[in-house]
Amino acid sequence: MNYTKEELEKLQDRNSILIQKSMYEDxxxxxxxxxxxxxxAIFEYxxxxxxxxxxxxxxxxxxxxxxxxxxxxxxNSTKFIKTCRQNTKNANKRWDKKKKDASEDxxxxxxxxx
Length: 114
Description:
Blueprint: H1 5-13, H2 24-28, H3 32-48, H4 60-107
Helix pairs in contact: 3-4
């Protein structure tokens, strides 16, 4: 999904990320160092959108867990933006209806007495 500049800003302004319980199986077999790398990679990606380079041989497990997180994060971001777009569309419909109703009310007013 392609995002507008405003939508990207909304994503960056979100104050939380979702880590699914299913990731626990990956995390519990990691060392403390690997868990640290994973957590830092997750935050770096969520804050800046930069996919970290996890190419070293000893980072295979971290890379695998990060890729699972990334797929979930992108799915959630897509759902979030779709919801925002639908909310905007609904608000615009209500706004247009209110403007139309107001203009119809104005046309029913007496030209002299209002």
